[in-house]
Amino acid sequence: MAQPVQSIDVLLIEHAELELALADPELHSNPAEARKAGRRFARLAPIVATHRKLISARDDLQTARELAAGDESFADEIAELESRIAELTTQLTDMLAPHDPHGPDDIVLEVKSGEGGEESALFAADLARMYIRYAERHGWTVTVLDETTSDLGGYKDATLAISHKGASDGDAVDGVWSRMKFEGGVHRVQRVPVTESQGRVHTSAAGVLVYPEPEEIGEVHIDESDLRIDVYRSSGKGGQGVNTTDSAVRITHLPTGVVVTCQNERSQLQNKTRALQVLAARLQAMAEEQALANASADRASQIRTVDRSERIRTYNFPENRITDHRIGYKAHNLDQVLDGDLDALFDALSAADKQSRLQQV
Fold first, then answer.
1. Computed from CA positions of residues 212, 217, 223, 226, in that sequence, does the dihedral angle turn out positive or negative?
2. Which residue among 3, 204, 299, 355 has the highest number of C-beta atoms inside a 10 angstrom radius?
3. What is the role of the protein in this entry?
């Protein structure tokens, strides 16, 4: 959920308090709290640094104006400082705009086939490969947690975990969620299916769900008594030996009916751990959506971005065109997009989101 605009004075006080707390050995006796405080401190640091630069530039401008009263050679310096102040003011305003607290997070992404039978499943697999290739371009790690394949090798459904930890690219500091949070919704494809003998273009669709993954499972309260855990024999593409033991795990959260399965890790314990992480992500998303609905039923969510029944994008193969209906984006490079070249589209979506946030300032 987007955070409200905050006063710079409040943030400066919080930053100073966190700096003192992080220097206190007592805080580090609770590693989880120490990590939480450290993440918040790191989040505030660039805001504080920009504010200090702005104050310094304003002081320099005042001095330059006083000196210019007796020496016209300072006029150029005044113009430079005024330009610098305008730039810093814009940066600080952007930083203080409502932001997404999950920006640095990794994600769990689900792809599900929809109407269209086998063609929809094949398209769902195309989407999964598109996201995997995009992640590879950025040095992110992708783990296929669960998958159900169709007769022709498509995906009836697949669950991916995408992590930026250890990545070396510059975008990684913002997290996977900040780049991929706009992907949730219905994706429509227009093309000639492999099963079409008459060469006619068909329309089908697949759904994508995206959840920010909590830094730690403990950040989301899950009562063990609310869980039913079943184990069974894996049936995915886990390689030789994957089917020989009951290593797959299915977890049902009884109060909500949410079911999570994981079968592609090498052991039952690993599958259970990953399934709990996915469950935590889903429950966190559900809680935030409910809180948002309670706060304002008619306000557009910047985290969920669209109703999941809404068509957000069309992939037109005959024209090699991709269209994002939310922002009116069109490009004739569908082949490149499906190969993971998504940055131009994601930049456009991020720019539209930024503009929306700035309007709330």
1. positive
2. 204
3. Peptide chain release factor 1 directs the termination of translation in response to the peptide chain termination codons UAG and UAA.
pLDDT at 245: 62
Q: Enter the DSSP assignment of 307.
A: -
From CA 17, how far away is CA 11, in angstroms rounded? 10
Distance CA 323, CA 331 (A): 7
- Residue 153's pLDDT band, with cuts at 50, 70 and 90, is very high
The residue ranges of DSSP E strands in the chain, in sequence order, are 106-113, 141-149, 155-163, 185-191, 202-213, 227-232, 248-253, 258-262, 311-316, 321-324, 329-331
To the nearest whole number, what is the mean pLDDT of the chain? 84
pLDDT per residue as tens digits for the range 277-310: 899 888 888 887 776 565 444 334 433 433 334 6
Please give the structure tokens belonging to residue 327. 């922002």
Mean local confidence (pLDDT), 11-32: 93
Instruction: Please check the confidence at residue 240 and state whether its pLDDT lies above 70.
Output: no
User: Average pLDDT of 91-111?
Assistant: 84
How far apart, in whole angstroms, are the C-alpha atoms of residue 250 and residue 255? 16
CATH of 106-356, one of 3.30.70.1660, 3.10.450.50, 3.90.226.10, 1.20.1540.10: 3.30.70.1660
pLDDT tens digit sequence for 248-257: 999 999 999 9
d(C-alpha 143, C-alpha 165), whole Å: 13
Neighbours of 248 (CB within 10 A): 25
210 touches 109 (CB < 8 A) = yes
The helix, strand and coil proportions of the chain, stated in percent and rounded to the nearest 5, come to: 45, 20, 30
Structure tokens at 142: 């992708």
Please write down the long-range contacts of 249-254, taking CB distance under 8 Å and 24 or more positions apart. 249/275, 250/275, 251/227, 251/275, 251/276, 251/279, 252/227, 252/228, 253/222, 253/226, 253/227, 253/279, 253/283, 254/226, 254/227, 254/228
- The token duo for 264 is 């592609």
